[in-house]
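How a chain folds remains the central question behind the approach discussed here. In the encoding step, the backbone of a single protein was reduced to a row of integers, each denoting a local shape. We regard such an encoding as a compact summary of how the chain folds. The sequence in question and its structure tokens are set out directly beneath this paragraph:

___
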Amino acid sequence: MLFLAPALRCGSPTPLYAQSIEEPRLVVRGLDFRGNHAIDGYTLRTSIATTESSWLVRFPLTGWIGAGEKRYLDETEFRRDVLRLVLLYRVSGYLQVRVDTMVRRSKDAARIQFLIREGPPVRVRSIDISGVEGIVPLRDLLHDIPLAVGDPFNRIRFEWAADTIRAAVRDRGYPFAEVFRSYDVHEDSLSARIRFELEPGARGRVDSVIVEGTREIAPDVVRRMIPIRSGAWFSQSALYRSQRDLYRLGVFGYVNVTLADSAPQGPADSSVAVRVQVTEGTLRRLRMGVGYGTVDCFRGLASWSASNVLGGGRVLDLTARVSKLGAGDPLSAGFENWPCGALKDEVGTERFRLNYNVAASLQEPFLFSRLTRGTVSLSAERHSEIQAYRRDALSANLSVTRETRWDLPVTAGYSVSLTRTFAEPAIFCSFLSVCRLEDAEPFSEQRLQSMVTLGFVRDRSNSVLDPTRGSTLSAEARYASRLLGSDSLIQFAKGVMELAVYYPIGRRTTLAWRVRGGGIVSPALGFGGQSVRYIPPSERFYAGGANSVRGYGQNRLGPVVRVVNPERGDTVLSRDSPGTEVRRFVPDTLTAATGGNSLIIANAELRFPLPGFGARLSGAAFVDLGQLFERGKELVDFSKTRVTPGLGLRIATPIGPMRFDVGYNGYQPEAGPLYRKEGPELVLLNPLYRPGRSGAWVSRHLVFHFSVGQAF
């Protein structure tokens, strides 16, 4: 559409808002196109000046109170719109197009229809490309250009084809290649012959790379981070890759990579200079922020980063994060009612103390090669997962990321941690038959975890914050073993893979789906006179929550154990059959998620605009399914997969969409073992206890989530 802009702007003002027109002014309450097949309605709307009023204006009540934005009919521009549409169709190859109009007028409004008779198009009869012999295979060019024999002769695509040929030749060392183009249209036969003639010019090598605009960062750092080398054949795409790679460093606010000369210095000039213009961004950054979530309530973040530390473009990051699951110290002064009330009825949340993460990392952008970068980091953290575990760890990590030829970054890492994991003892009783509390204490002792990781992320989506087209594929493998120095109780192999795909449907509607699966295996170990396969709770899979299966709360999908604690509880008042008021002690029942060693999750979501609210507010309808399984203990039964539908709202913000989701859960609570604490032991009361659901219908079946960013 870039080539249409000069023609369509002749005499064209900005879209018609409230203009000064003689009364009566007619509000455009409807705008429609009939008979268009080759060009969609959205393209036609963007090519004309007349626009329809907001969705709210079209209804009598909302229009009467002044809701929505009104657009008025300008008769002069309306007549010009007919010419604009004719021009658009003729440029697209439809020379016999006819455009009529039908306007239904009332006292203060108009409803407009453009009636289009497209007629047959002029089709491409032949394509001739000359001058490319010995430079680019003709077959490759005919495959790559956006026009083929038999297509409608679209002059915009004709220009794109010339650009494609020029770029292909410049990528092969011809920096000043030009493509001359011509065409012959035969209206009687509705056919077109198109011709492209290449003038390649001299083939050139890069003579020098000129760097301009650096202050603290040395020019040699810029040169080594780009794929352009002195003595190499010139490549146009290398200029684009250089600009992308320099932006990825995160230290430049502006980058422009071009030829130093716009024309050859002589007819046989075989060398060129490349100019790299940069503007350094802020090399020291301090960020602070607070947040809120339905599970971890209040959050805090502070970070400081310094770029070009020790020279070479290295980046030093210092970060600190704090959060708190539910209410409790230090958030116990009424916060358990609101806004930390999501977990106020959850027994045992007081055992989750303040979470924190303090980390320092140093990134080396050039590790033996511009395609390889390394990161070393140190961290101290306490991480809690509701109903699951708490993990304290001191860690050191080393990772190396390599950009492959398929634009697929692969990361290998090694980490060593001193870690302690606290979990409900009933989990060990259920899975390992370790039911004495003192026998389960070794699982909470501090141990050494030594692990290697390997993973990749293939991101082909069009946005990190709110993708509408493309796909993302990621995979990660982890391996911890005594061979690497890990403790004998911390040995496992774990793999996870995820694929998310985004399909645009119309202008602002997206169909997105995701599948995620994983598995863990661990060796058999001797413990307490028996053979066990132990997987640390922090490495097991959990499901349910705002980014998982939204019909369940955080970690509430999958196997669970429950423990009755007769030493803790509440006294409630009730009446016996004669009506006498009786005080009764109800012991606490704690629910803990055991997780699983296998995971399957699938999500499908339709993201659509809400009429009358513009781009700021949109809706979503989704269906999530998933389940956790314990291979080796039970047969994998896919009939236990849970399916939960739901609806959501999205509010656009600069940091991504603010998301409100409501998931529907029609299932009974998960059945699982029920234990009772009796002195130093856990006694099994019921192997398949399933509590009943209490409360109103909303609390029993609807699960609410609030977060920032799309679920996937």
Residues 18 and 72 are 6 Å apart (CA to CA). The domain at 205-280 is CATH 3.10.20.310 (Ubiquitin-like (UB roll)).
